[in-house]
Fold this sequence. Notes:
Blueprint: H1 11-28, H2 34-48, H3 51-63, H4 68-72, H5 85-98, H6 109-118, H7 121-143
Amino acid sequence: MEARLNPFTSPVLGKVFKHFIAANKPIAESSLPYAVQELVRMRVSQINGCAACIDMHFKEAVHAGEDPARLNLVATWREATVFTDAERAALELAEEATRIADAAGGVSDEVWANAAKHYDEEQLAALVCVIAIINAFNRANVMTRQPGGGYEVGMYEH
Length: 158
């Protein structure tokens, strides 16, 4: 597959992507566990079919010490035994927020309350931001057909 646009040579897309990348800094500095951030990025990217983001976040998570077996099970987190209740709550929130058009009323009160049992207000805010930013990246990457497979750890700052 060949990309329709190169985000790093396109003046507009490149600037916007740099802002998306910079927006991840406060999330990284938050108390939301890094593992949860990457699990959510993986799941949202799977739902949206973004090969570039799946490639990137799998490799970054493994590099940071995440177990590849857990990452391989993210798509089936409901049936997998390797996730904590807190991680499950984050993945459920990520799914409902990503599929917002499919759920009349958006994210349900039950899903939000479940996440709020496991995460404080700062962590919930970081979780909302992780989900929103990865959805934006996914949509831009899918529209412009960014391929997966060529990412190297640390290739982009975030």
